[in-house]
Amino acid sequence: MTPPLPHWYLLGAGNMGTLAAWHLLQAGHSVTVIKSGNGVSLTKILQLPDGHSTTFTLPVLAPEALTGPIDHLLVAVKTPYSQFALSPITHRIHPDSLVVRFQNGLGALDGLLPMGVAIVDAVSTSAVKGQHPHHQIVAENTTWLGGPIDEPGWFRELQSHWPNLQWCENIHTPQWKKLVANVVINPLTALHDVPNGHIVDNPALRQLAEQLCAEADAVLQALDPSWPGHSLNSVLAVASATAGNTSSMRADWQHGAITEIEAINGWLVKQAGRLGIPAPHNRRIVALLTK
Ligand SMILES: NC(=O)C1=CN([C@@H]2O[C@H](COP(=O)(O)OP(=O)(O)OC[C@H]3O[C@@H](n4cnc5c(N)ncnc54)[C@H](OP(=O)(O)O)[C@@H]3O)[C@@H](O)[C@H]2O)C=CC1
Ligand SMILES: CC(C)(CO)C(=O)C(=O)O
User: Fold this and answer.
1) What is the model's pLDDT at position 289?
2) Which residues 6+ apart lie within 8 Å of 37 measured at CB?
3) Interface ipTM
4) Ligand 1 midpoint to CA 77 (Å)
5) How far is the CA of 3 from the centre of ligand 2 (A)?
6) Cβ(127) to ligand 1 under 6 A?
7) Function, please (predicted)?
8) Is the dihedral of CA 244, 250, 254, 257 positive or negative?
C-alpha cells in the first residue's frame, strides 16, 4: 500500500513558505501554518511566472493549539526568528520527524531541535517577493533539497508539480555556492545601499567583494578540501544576473529589520574561529550589520 502523503506544518508563511506550500498542495500534500491567531485561515494570492495569479487558503493553528506530534515541518522564517518560532513547538518534534529548512545561510537551527531529527536543507535560486497576502514569483530557478536521508518516496511526484526541483545527494555544493554569493553580495549591498550590480561595476566594492570571497573560500576549503575555491567569478555572475535587484539584506536593513548576517557571514566567522583561519573582513562586516 502507498503511504499517505505528508501533512506539513509550516513555520513562516511569507514569500518562500507560500511558494513551497503552493507546490506541496499541487502535489496533493496538506499544509497547516503554525502561527499565533488560531482558527484564522490565511488566504494567499500568488502570482505565477506566466503572470496568472492563483488563490489558495491555508489553515492556521496557534502553537499552543497543536495536539499530536509533528511528523513533517517546513521552516521558512527568516533565520533570526528561528528560535522564537520553534521554541513553542519543539516538544511536538520527535526523532523520526522530518524538518525541511528553507532558509538562506547555515546553522540557524543548530541546537534548536531534539537530538536525532533529520534536517533536509532546501536551497533555492528562485525569488519570490511581496507582502501577505500578495506574493509574486519573480524568478523560477532551481531549488535543491537534500540532507542526511535518502530521497523520500513522495519526492518524484512533488517534482512533477514544482518546476526545477531537484534532490541533491550532496547538498553542501549548492548550499555553499549560495552561501558565498550571500556572504559577498548581501552585506555590501546593504551597507552601501546599492543594487546587486554595483558589486561588479564599482571598483571599491569589487575589492571588498574579493576580500570577503577569498576568506569564504579559505574557510570552505579547510572544511572540505574538495571545495574548488576561486568563487569570485561565480559570485560576480550572480550579481550581474540580478544587477537591478535589491538583496534581501539590503531590504531588511532599509526597513530597520534584523538581518540574516548571523547565519551568513556570522556562520563563516564562527567556522574561521574554530579552524584558526583569519577572517578580519567578514568579522568587520558582521560587526557593522549587528545591531
Ligand atoms: N524570498 C526569496 O526569494 C528567497 C528567500 N530565501 C530565504 O527564505 C527564508 C524566508 O524568507 P522569505 O520567505 O523571503 O521571508 P518573509 O519575511 O517573506 O517570510 C517570513 C515569514 O515568517 C513569519 N514568521 C516570523 N516569525 C514567526 C513566528 N514566530 N512564527 C510563525 N511565523 C513567523 C513571518 O510572519 P509575519 O510577517 O507575520 O511576521 C513571515 O510570514 C529566508 O531565510 C530567506 O533568506 C531563500 C531564497 C529566496
Ligand atoms: C543571490 C541574492 C543576493 C539575490 O539578490 C540573494 O539570495 C539575496 O538577496 O538574499
Assistant:
1) 97
2) 60, 62
3) 0.98
4) 4
5) 37
6) yes
7) Catalyzes the NADPH-dependent reduction of ketopantoate into pantoic acid.
8) positive
For the domain made up of 7-169, give the CATH fold: Rossmann fold (3.40.50)
Rounded Cα distance between 258 and 148, Å, is 30
Domain edges within the chain? 7-169, 173-288
Mean pLDDT (the chain) is 96
Residue of 126, 141, 192, 196 with the most ligand 2 atoms within 8 Å of its CB, for mutation: 196
Supply the pLDDT for residue 39: 67
Distance 243 CA to ligand 2 centre (A): 10
Does any ligand 1 atom lie closer than 6 A to the CB of residue 78?
Answer: yes
Please give the grid coordinates belonging to residue 267: 556562520
Say how far apart CA 29 and CA 4 lie, in whole Å: 9
Angle between helix 280-288 and helix 265-275 axes, rounded to 10 deg: 140
3-state secondary structure of 189: helix
DSSP structure string for 41-82: -EEEEEE-TTS-EEEEEE-EE-GGG--S-EEEEEE-S-GGGH
Atom index in ligand 1 nearest the CA of residue 108 equals 43
At residue 56, the pLDDT reads: 98
Q: What's the pLDDT score for residue 37?
A: 74
Q: Is the CB of 238 under 6 A from ligand 2?
A: yes
Closest ligand 1 atom number to CA of residue 248: 45
63 CB near ligand 1 (under 6 Å): no
Backbone angles phi, psi at 234, to 5 degrees: -70, -30
> Which tens digits make up the pLDDT trace of 8-63?
999 999 999 999 999 999 999 999 999 987 668 999 999 999 999 999 999 999 99
Q: Which among 51, 36, 42, 35 is positioned nearest to 18, based on CA atoms?
A: 42
Q: Which CATH class is domain 173-288?
A: mainly alpha
